[in-house]
Design a protein that fits this description.
Number of helices: 10
Strand order of the largest sheet: 1-2-3-4-6-5
Strand content: 15-25%
Radius of gyration: 20 Å
Largest sheet: 6 strands, antiparallel
């Protein structure tokens, strides 16, 4: 989105939405907002439950964000998995596009990472390895299921993983840039994803199916295992992307086990394979990646 659009959405006054009926639900309060849409807590009268409603005001509609918004709803709606956000209803009013989904009582994985990094004691700045493996294996299971339905997420990152408060279940959200492999050809003119988590092929406008998501999961796994990712300083996203393309063998200068004393060298191999520069050298699918993590868990964390 353009900077102008993002700032406009940030200043959007949502007060008039409170008490408004959307589909079968009544809006109660604003929950969150991003560059493209706003999420509200709502009460679904028909089933007497609280849900989340995501809206895109038509006053901010562009062909691109309308497509992404609709794509997010449609991609997630055809998936049914305990680690993927359920979509209930998709619709449109005179004022906005909307879809409703499960209201997750929890927080983004980003918050968990930030809390760990702010701990005073160095030993507390690490998320327990066992917890990390359990979280990532569930995410991999959900992505493997999505890939079997020919849906590639293309923007896996901590911001798009919600951690349920009581069960600690990770839930994948935001399928706005997902690709339905059986329905469309690759658009090589558009770079899609978030720079740090983008596979090298995504930088040049390509997607290598499941293996592009696997790369993003590998980066996220590395991030969860260490106090801070061992990256050089970048003054812009463009600089990071250029560095990633040019440094085919040494994007990260340090291995996970060098930064986390609780890790075995085997984890270096697992993470390293997931984030290989060449897509064909990564895991073939998320199930294979998941099996390796489960093997590490059984061998070293029981």
């Amino acid at each position: 989105m353009t900077g102008k659009f993002m700032s406009t959405m940030a200043s959007y006054n949502s007060d008039n939405m409170i008490g408004k009926q959307i589909g079968t639900s009544i809006v109660l309060s604003e929950l969150a907002r991003g560059s493209m849409a706003i999420v509200f807590v709502a009460y679904q009268k028909t089933l007497k439950r609280r849900i989340a409603v995501k809206i895109l005001p038509k006053s901010f509609l562009t062909p691109k964000n309308a497509t992404l918004f609709q794509q997010e709803a449609e991609s997630a709606a055809i998936l049914s998995h305990p680690n993927i956000i359920p979509i209930y209803e998709v619709g449109e009013t005179k004022e906005f596009l909307f879809f409703t989904m499960q209201l997750i009582q929890g927080f983004p994985l980003t918050q968990l990472l930030n809390m760990a990094q702010k701990q005073v004691l160095p030993s507390k700045r690490l998320i327990p390895v066992k917890q990390t493996c359990q979280c990532v294996t569930q995410i991999l299971d959900a992505l493997h299921y999505a890939h079997q339905q020919d849906i590639i997420h293309r923007d896996i990152k901590p911001d798009n993983i919600l951690i349920e408060k009581h069960s600690h279940r990770p839930i994948i959200t935001d399928f706005g840039v997902a690709k339905v492999l059986r329905e469309e050809k690759e658009d090589h003119s558009m770079m899609i994803g978030t720079p740090l988590y983008m596979a090298p092929e995504q930088i040049i406008g390509e997607t290598r199916g499941a293996r592009s998501d696997i790369y993003a999961i590998g980066i996220m796994l590395f991030e969860m295992l260490v106090p801070n990712l061992p990256l050089p300083e970048f003054d812009s996203s463009d600089a990071l992307l250029k560095y990633k393309l040019l440094n085919k063998k040494n994007f990260f200068k340090t291995k996970p086990s060098d930064l986390n004393p609780f890790l075995k060298k085997e984890m270096d191999r697992i993470v390293g394979r997931a984030i290989k520069y060449e897509a064909e050298k990564r895991y073939h699918n998320c199930q294979e990646f998941k099996s390796e993590l489960e093997g590490y868990h059984q061998t070293y964390l029981q």
